[in-house]
Amino acid sequence: MPFKSLAPGEAKPFEMRLLDPPEHTTDVYVHFAPPFRYRWRRDCDVFDARTSTPDSELTDLPAPVSRSLWGIIDDQLDAYKLAITPVVAGGSTPADYSAAELNTLTRYFRREAAWAWECRESEKIECAGAARRLNWRDMFALAEAIDEAWVAVSMHDAMQATHSTEIGSSELAAADRVCQTRIREVAALGVSALRRAGSSVPEIDVELTTSLLKLDDAGLYLQIASRMINTGADTRFVDTLLVALVDHFNLPLSSITVASATALAPGQAQDFSQRIPVTRSGSRPALSASDAGVIGRVPPEEIAWQIRVGAMTQLNETSK
């Protein structure tokens, strides 16, 4: 920008020329760089409101002493196919997240959104394939929504602790409804984030047969193998495979699309295998192919995660 600050009530014009815009551009959005700083965890002994500020820097989460990266190398990860996220009925809770889990997820998505923002125009090795991952806007929105859910759950827990003496049943029920609403909002944002990769191909089942987190001389990677099966009566075309890391409530934590360009006749099955580079604190991705991309950073050990693979059609234009 041609200026660095604005005084109260001050307005300043600016002009930019964007060379060679994408052919199908329909809208241009102008916004401030997002605020990726985040306050420290507020419900543990290390937090001190007198010394911590809203702009405290977020650092990597400390790994538990009981389990390190090396302890999970070559471990078999739980594998299952990508399923349609069920519609949550009104009044039901889609996921019983604890306040601690929500706090960790907020920090994770804030950090990943900041990293995705930096990867937009970066040529760093860990940014390979960034355009085919979860968008920074989606992760930032998830961070904000999860933080709201954290506040609701923390308040509910505090009210429940004093229910017998100070809080009535109606107030506690109202707090529970707020928790349900906030968590449903998080689940909806997660579904929306994955839909940006395209639409699932109907009648194509994907069975994930192998999912390994491995480390070799080149670096860290996921080794996956799956089988696509056309269960319908028509030929189906699979443009890409969506590989996603999800938590135990199916919230997407990280994802990347991998080119497939496969036509499956009725009843036909096709095997697929891919080595997908990943990063983790203190590690580098094991790049094996220029078009594979890096799925991003695997979640910290505080967040349990699994792998999903889905068959996708071309990009859904309505969800850009």
Number of helices: 3
Taking Cα atoms only, what radius of gyration do you get, to the nearest Å?
A: 22 Å
Reading off the top of the CATH hierarchy, the class of the domain at 204-319 is best stated as Mainly Beta
CATH fold name of the domain at 204-319, please? Immunoglobulin-like
Per DSSP E runs of 2 or more residues, the count of β-strands stands at: 6
Largest sheet: 3 strands, antiparallel
Structural class: alpha+beta
Overall mean confidence score, pLDDT: 76
Order of helices and strands: HHHEEEEEE
Describe the protein in words.
- The chain is α+β, with helices and mostly antiparallel strands.
- The protein has a domain at 204-319: Immunoglobulin-like.
- It has three helices and six strands, in the order H-H-H-E-E-E-E-E-E.
- Strands 1-2-5 form a three-stranded antiparallel sheet, with no helix packed on it. A three-stranded antiparallel sheet has the order 4-3-6, with helices on one face.
- The radius of gyration is 22 Å and the shape is globular.
- The chain starts with 98 loop residues before the first helix and ends in an 8-residue tail after the last strand.
- The relative contact order is 0.16.
